[in-house]
Specification:
It contains twelve helices and four strands; from the N terminus they run ααααααβββααααβαα. It has helices spanning 3-33, 41-66, 74-90, 96-118, 123-143, 145-148, 169-191, 194-204, 206-211, 216-242, 252-265, 272-280, and strands spanning 154-155, 161-162, 165-166, 244-245. The protein has a two-stranded antiparallel ribbon. The N and C termini lie far apart (50 Å).
C-alpha cells in the first residue's frame, strides 16, 4: 500500500469519526426533545428527573469507565450539591444560579478531599472508602438538624428565576437538557483528548502509563473532580425539580442506582449513561 492510499484511508476514517460524532450528538438532542412533543406534567416530571440522573451518570462514567475508579458514594455528592443549593435558596434567599454554583463548588471540593487519601488504595478498597463516605453524609443529613432540618428535610424549594420571572417546568427541563448535552460534548471531547487517553492508559496499565509520562495521581484526581462537579450540578437540579428533599432521597440505593445505570448502558462507552438512564426510566 503506497503513501497516498494510507493518507486517503486516514482521511476517510477521520471523516467517519467526525460525522459519527455529529450524528450521535444530534440523536441525543432528538431524544432529549421528545418529552416536549407530549402534553402532561407527569411525562415532563419524569423526563426532567431522567435528565438529572443522566447528568450525574455521565460524570460517573468518566470516573469509572475511563479512569477505572469505582465510586459507591456518588449519591452523597449529589446530596451535597442538592442540600447546598436548597439551603441557600430557602434560608438565604439566594438565586438558583449562584446557589447551584456554590453546590457544585462544595461537591467538587468534597469529592477531591475524599479522593486524596483513597487514591493510594486499590480499586475495591477505594470503593469501600466512597461507600463509607456516603454513609457518613447520610448520617449527617439526619443528625445535623440545625442545618439540614433532619428527617423533615427542606421544603418549599422555589423554581429558578430568570430576569425576575420563575421558570416553568418546561423551561427547567430545557435548562437541564442543555446541561446534559454540554456534559455529553465535554465528555466526548475529553475522552478523545490527550487527557482521556491518559485516563484509559492509567486504567489499563498504570506502570506503562507512568513510563510514558502520565501522572496517575493527577489524572485520577482530575477525573474525580469533573465527576464530582457534575454530581453537584445534578444535585442542584434535583432539589429544584422535586421542591422537597429529605435524607431518604440520598440513601445507599441512590448511589447504587448510578452504578447500575452505567453498567447496564455500557461501562466506558460515551452512550452508556444515556442508554442506561433510558432503560431505568
Amino acid at each position: 500500500m503506497n503513501t497516498s492510499t494510507c493518507f486517503q484511508d486516514a482521511a476517510v476514517r477521520l471523516g467517519f469519526v467526525k460525522y459519527r460524532s455529529l450524528f450521535l450528538t444530534l440523536l441525543l438532542l432528538i431524544a432529549l426533545s421528545s418529552p416536549l412533543w407530549f402534553k402532561g406534567q407527569l411525562i415532563l416530571f419524569l423526563a426532567t428527573q431522567a435528565a438529572v440522573m443522566m447528568l450525574v451518570a455521565i460524570g460517573l462514567n468518566l470516573l469509572m469507565g475511563y479512569a477505572g475508579l469505582v465510586s459507591l458514594g456518588h449519591g452523597a455528592l449529589v446530596a451535597i450539591g442538592g442540600y447546598t443549593t436548597a439551603l441557600l435558596m430557602v434560608d438565604a434567599q439566594i438565586s438558583f444560579w449562584i446557589a447551584s454554583l456554590a453546590g457544585v463548588a462544595l461537591a467538587t471540593v468534597t469529592g477531591v478531599l475524599m479522593a486524596l487519601p483513597a487514591l493510594r488504595l486499590s480499586t475495591w478498597y477505594f470503593a469501600l472508602v466512597t461507600l463509607t463516605f456516603s454513609q457518613v453524609v447520610s448520617d449527617l443529613l439526619v443528625e445535623w438538624k440545625g442545618v439540614t432540618k433532619g428527617f423533615s428535610g427542606i421544603v418549599g424549594i422555589p423554581a429558578p428565576t430568570l430576569f425576575g420571572r420563575s421558570l416553568s417546568p418546561v423551561e427547567v427541563y430545557c435548562v437541564v437538557a442543555a446541561c446534559v448535552v454540554l456534559a455529553f460534548i465535554l465528555s466526548r471531547n475529553l475522552v478523545q483528548s490527550r487527557i482521556g487517553r491518559g485516563m484509559v492508559a492509567a486504567r489499563d496499565n498504570p506502570l506503562a502509563a507512568t513510563a510514558a509520562g502520565v501522572s496517575i495521581w493527577r489524572i485520577k484526581l482530575f477525573a474525580f473532580a469533573i465527576s464530582a462537579a457534575l454530581a453537584g450540578l445534578g444535585g442542584a437540579f434535583f432539589a429544584v425539580q422535586k421542591t422537597v428533599i429529605t435524607p431518604e432521597d440520598f440513601n445507599a440505593d441512590f448511589s447504587i442506582f448510578f452504578l447500575l445505570t452505567i453498567v447496564v448502558g455500557g461501562l466506558g462507552r460515551l452512550w452508556g449513561p444515556v442508554v442506561g438512564t433510558l432503560v431505568f426510566f
